[in-house]
Amino acid sequence: MADTFSAAAIPSRQRAVPASLFAVCFVLACINAAFFPAGLLSGIWIWRPDGLGIPTDFVNVWAAGKLALQGHPALAWDWDVQRQVEIDLLQQDFAGYFAWHYPPPFLFVAAFLAQFPYAIAFAGWTYASFIPYALVMRAIVGRGFGLLLAAGFPALFSNVLVGQNGCLTAALVGGTLYLLPVRPVLAGICLGLLTYKPQYGLLFPIVLIATQRWTAFISASITAIVLVLVSLLAFGMESWHAFFHWLPTFSQAFLTEGKATWWKLQSLFSLVRYFGGSETLGWTFQWVLTAAVAMVLVTLWRSPVRYSLKAAALAVGLLLTTPYLFMYDMTVQAIAVAWLVRLGLSEGFRRYELPALGCIAALQITFMMTGIPLGLAANLMVGGLVLARAGSWWRRQPSPSESALAAA
């Protein structure tokens, strides 16, 4: 079934950005823009006033890259070796581990960043990765307001604070969805690059196969294979051996023992564990939700529902189906919200949508201030908005209103 999405914006049908939406995004964007330069100067971001490094996620990227540059890429997955490099860098000990657990192709990024001094690499990574994310948001929304929405999205704060890769993930997810109807080869390349986050590797293939998008599927497969081969040439087979050897240890530590503490994760699995449920119960709930989301997505994507809603549903579905979901990866939720905003600007927001979007932002901010895991509730609300817009999405024939809104 042909998609009803046009990559070009249609200015004549777009409405003005609601004042409340613009104001909230502007305030949050200003906070994000001002906090981190001020934090760097005052010693609450990257470096402390006494010159010691602040232990946070990005240290594992820089340390892994340094080991790769020194000719020992496989040691990046060795928790003890990696930790010692991090301690030497930060000039202080810290509790726990910032373990490297990404597939070997992501070592290319880490090795590049490790060529620079730590503070420059940290800040440069967060701001450089923001650029493709912001451009994708701008493209999806269809006007300049997409840049403000990207800069004001609450999860962006969590991502920049710890130097994580949420912006890159969101850019690749958003790029795949934006390009899929019009540039399937490029969409497949974006999807192939997304294999650095294996937890997002379930729903995209299911949807592509169910809707027979073979060009994108083949393009993604070739991209993933090329990444594997290039990483083998650069870092050797031992890097892949190390990755698969340490993967069960990582899974045991974070998904069985809860080394990262359950409140930091935003999945249904972690919420069950947070409230004292067993691992078996957590997996049962998580797999039931995953199966339900997969079935809804296949039905939705095979229906005549407009493409914007399909894309939003898949973006938020990725977050609902992975048990390993930190707040910085909630940046991907911005992609789903951008598709909803696109619809709102083209045909008007429904009266409950702006309050709901405000509530979703409030849930993320509340987590950052209190540590209460509210990410799942925020994702479920986004999913609810998508399904409410879709209406009777299980029908095989489009309604007259859906047919009339072919470019939305």
Features:
19 helices; single chain; globular; mainly alpha; 408 residues
Kindly describe this structure.
This protein is an all-alpha fold and 408 residues long. It has helices spanning 19-42, 58-69, 79-90, 107-113, 118-141, 145-152, 155-162, 166-179, 184-193, 203-210, 214-235, 237-256, 268-274, 279-301, 307-321, 333-347, 353-370, 375-390, 400-404. Helix 5 runs parallel beside helix 16 (333-347). It is globular and about 55 Å long.
Q: How does the SSE layout of this entry go?
A:
Layout (H helix, E strand, L loop, with lengths): L18 H24 L15 H12 L9 H12 L16 H7 L4 H24 L3 H8 L2 H8 L3 H14 L4 H10 L9 H8 L3 H22 L1 H20 L11 H7 L4 H23 L5 H15 L11 H15 L5 H18 L4 H16 L9 H5 L4
Helix pairs in contact: 1-6, 2-3, 2-4, 5-6, 5-8, 5-16, 8-9, 8-16, 9-11, 10-14, 13-14, 14-15, 15-16, 15-18, 16-18, 17-18
